[in-house]
Design brief:
5 helices; globular; two-stranded parallel sheet; 96 residues
């Protein structure tokens, strides 16, 4: 399946929300990222998502990072994704 950049961003946000929820955390900023995507502001959504991940210290699996980078590349916005704190990237197999 060839997902759109917007679909990829939404999928990553949903995965982050599920993991935060299992830890008893609520991150309303992730809903704002989805709203930005829905309002055709995918580039701003990527910026806001990276800021949210860094600010709330959310871990991002390697496969999610790769998909997010793919989406950002499609939007010619890949530089933004490199701003993520590398300590927040975890292997895909980690159950975080």
């Amino acid at each position: 399946m060839n997902s759109s950049a917007e679909d990829i961003i939404r999928a990553v946000v949903d995965a982050l929300k599920r993991r935060a929820s299992t830890r008893g955390e609520t991150v309303p900023a992730l809903d704002s990222v989805r709203d930005l995507v829905a309002n055709d502001e995918a580039e701003i959504a990527i910026d806001y998502l990276i800021n949210t991940v860094n600010s709330f210290r959310l871990t991002l699996r390697k496969d999610e990072y790769d998909r997010l980078m793919s989406a950002a590349t499609r939007l010619d916005y890949a530089d933004s994704v490199t701003d993520i704190d590398p300590r927040l990237l975890v292997p895909t197999s980690d159950d975080v």
